[in-house]
Amino acid sequence: MEFYELVAQAEASGVAVMTRNIGRHHGRYLLKHRLIMLSPRLSGPQTISALAHELGHAFYGDDGPQPPELEARAWRWAACALITPALYAEAEVAAATTHLGAIARELGVTRQVVEAWLDAQDSMSNVRYINFGRIEQGA
């Protein structure tokens, strides 16, 4: 998925996206303002991964720093928005390896997103993919 597609998805959900110096953070979601802030110092894969992660927080209504289990949930959401089983298989073939870093490079995301996608596969029975990688819970 391209950056502009993620921004369009955010805007369609009523969430604004902007770049801003936010210290050591890659991204932040502010529920009260329905605003995602992204660091301008990120690489392309980091930007896409951080934006999808923050969209996960928006999807769940999270606000501010979250405990590890909710951060992991946002990463799984991001992973499912960015990666499908077919894309993963294509990336694995193109990379000619099962090395997660190489697969991440092929997918244009961070290794953290690939790891979250693999973690999410165990619980995919109640998630289905819909337009632009957005997911909807339930069957």
UniProtKB/TrEMBL annotation:
<dbReference type="InterPro" id="IPR010359">
    <property type="entry name" value="IrrE_HExxH"/>
</dbReference>
<dbReference type="Pfam" id="PF06114">
    <property type="entry name" value="Peptidase_M78"/>
</dbReference>
<feature type="domain" description="IrrE N-terminal-like">
    <location>
        <begin position="10"/>
        <end position="115"/>
    </location>
</feature>
<protein>
    <submittedName>
        <fullName>ImmA/IrrE family metallo-endopeptidase</fullName>
    </submittedName>
</protein>
